Amino acid sequence: MGLSILKDTSPTTLASFREELAVRQTSQVILLFSMGSQFDHLIVQHLAKLGIYCLVADPARIKATDVKKIAPAGIIVSGGPASVHNEPPPFDARIFDLGIPTLGICLGFQMWAKHAGSKVTPAKTREFGVHPMKILKADPLFAGFPKTTRVLQSHGDHITASKKLVILGKTDNALAAARYKHLWGVQYHPETTESEHGARLFENFCVKICGIAPFPATSVAELKIQELRTQISEKNVLIALSGGSDSSVVAYLLKHAAKGTKTKIRGVYIRGIDRPDDESFVKKYFGTQKWLDVKIVDATDAFLKVLKGKTNMRDKRLAMRGVYTEVLEKEIRAFKASFIAQGTLYTDLRESGHGHKTGARIAEIKVHHNTGITFSVPELAPLSDCVKDSARDIGLELGVPETLLFRHPFPGPGLVVRIEGEVNSETLKIARAVDGIYIDELRASKLYETVWQAGATLTRSEHTVTKGDDAGMGRVVALWAVWSVNGFTARVAQLPYDFLERVSRRITNEVREVGAVVYRISDKPPATIEWG
Ligand code: XMP
User: Fold this and answer.
1) Residue 257 Cα, ligand 1 centroid: separation in angstroms?
2) Centre of ligand 1 from the C-alpha of residue 60, in Å
3) pLDDT tens across 133-157, in order?
4) I need a labelling partner for 257 at 20 to 30 A (CA). Which of 46, 91, 183, 428 fits?
């Protein structure tokens, strides 16, 4: 359940590994070498859905001799930010010679291709985004696939075909899938939702190629409740509530874990950089419950004080995290809490440069507000191995109200990351007004449920305006909306043009400070979902 990583094969480690096999009633495991990819945990989740035991291994410490002791049925080597020619990732390449079926994904593919004598060089045309891939040869890896399939790519290097490689798939620009003996490789990311038939690819690899018999998965919610109950052991828990889905799911997990015990739960909602309706959601759904009490803390002044004069997004994120930590620390003391719970997702950890801790480099995309904090009491983050959709699945199992569960995600740092330049009471007022109009209109047009997340960013750009007979300057607001499943990747949502026009008219008419409205049309990758 947790994020423990295989770092050695000492007798103690091997004993607990064998115990885990016994619990899962299997003798088969897939070893996943995490090379630092943003998406590596999605691979773990694909295998978990198939009921396959996946052990994450540290490529810097697990050598070929260790792999022999574990004797996995198959190996997966993930993607990562390194490059085989100018930043060779830490990995014992003799693992590729063990004869164990291996699937290399993106960087993982480039690593074995280089080891097998192929050239890997910076590509003239770098590929980011969704491309069609033609399947050129029948292979068990692509059993059941149509001739052409859409795949998500995100790579700057490419592999030159060599005589050894059997080319299985190609995009317009590059070799996309190949095989050499027991080594399979895909240059795209089958673990992301944008790649079609990703689940089938993992099933083909594990079942058809590695010969693993899947084991039915158990209720994740029930396992998490049991784990929490043991951890909490009748003590008090403070939880940071935001009115969004993740913290709500954690609250419900705590509710079940505390049932019939002496544990008291307090939810803290921090006011200051939020949208107008977040607080009302918390009050409506949690304010009248018997199993927790809710405390609203107004930290507006504290936020504005630390944000004063800051214009760089990372500085603003760190300043926000400082106040968030201080408020929670104070409340921990006031409530005499023994634990602090947060709705941190794996996505938050990974983007902040945490997650599966291996010797491979992990890029820090942005510092999420709930990561890297050392509280004075232990932290409970039961969703830290989940992404958005799997956390929502747990919420559904627990009966979390669907209006809460399916609210668009809203980032912990709130409007701070949707305001370019200084965050002050004036820019917050504009950002709230603009967000309010956009979300209202999405709901009124029944478009809210059709997109995964939408937001409005107050940019630093100014536009010349002519209102009435007068002239002046007004800020540019960028609207955006995405389709996604888990937030790791996203596609621009194609909102109707007449809808966008209507929202733009309302914003420029109703919010005096805004001069023009634009719509962002980039996918993730390369752009992230939030502006900052
Ligand atoms: P990005 O912008 O990194 O966001 O593509 C992915 C998802 O995470 C949300 N997000 C955050 N959530 N704390 C959070 O709890 C944060 O600091 C944070 N930053 C981004 C974002 O809204 C999107 O849903």
Assistant:
1) 27
2) 29
3) 999 999 999 999 999 999 998 877 7
4) 46
